[in-house]
Design brief:
It is a multi-pass membrane protein. Keywords: Membrane, Transmembrane, Transmembrane helix. Belongs to the DP1 family. By secondary structure, the chain is mainly alpha-helical. Helices cover about 85% and strands about 0% of the residues. It contains seven helices and no strands. Helix 4 runs parallel beside helix 6, helix 5 (about 80-105) runs antiparallel to helix 6 (about 115-125) and helix 5 packs across helix 7. The longest helix is centred in the last third of the chain and has 53 residues, at about 130-185. It is elongated.
Length: about 180
Amino acid sequence: MFAQLHNRYEALLNENNFVTDLLATMEEKTGIQKKYIASGVVSLISLYLLFGYGASLLCNLIGFVYPAYLSIKAIESKKKDDDTQWLTYWVVYGFFSIAEAFSDIFLSWFPFYYAGKCLFLVWCMAPVTWNGSAILYSRVVRPVFLRHQATLDSVVNNLSDKAKNIADTVTKEAVNQALKHDKNQ
């Protein structure tokens, strides 16, 4: 298993993208192999997540920036599979964020909470067959959604109707006020 991870790590470092180009430039200027530079950066980020101030921000950036970038690329591509992958990630991320909003005040006091959260988010976005988003969506989110779909549809339709009525009322009132203002001048 370790050999497989090592091979995947090496393949990742040899892909052609912005990060690997930056690592190649650093390797050229310093003479240090890019695998050591990348390992050092990952180690520093890991240590910061474990002991650093503001680990919450770093963890949230890791959980947002890379998936957002790949989501934009997925939108721009012709393939549907990558769209589904990243939509699944964002649905699971949304559920996690809502759950975390209620539990974060307690969980953030646990040692290494942000390192664990970051590992969870990386698992959810990982390009592997045992991707966390796919597993959590198929085993938790989807069954709950299908069980309550009729109720959720009803609530969404009611809220949409109410929002439309409010928007119509506000628009009419604004037009009436503007007309009154014009008459008074």
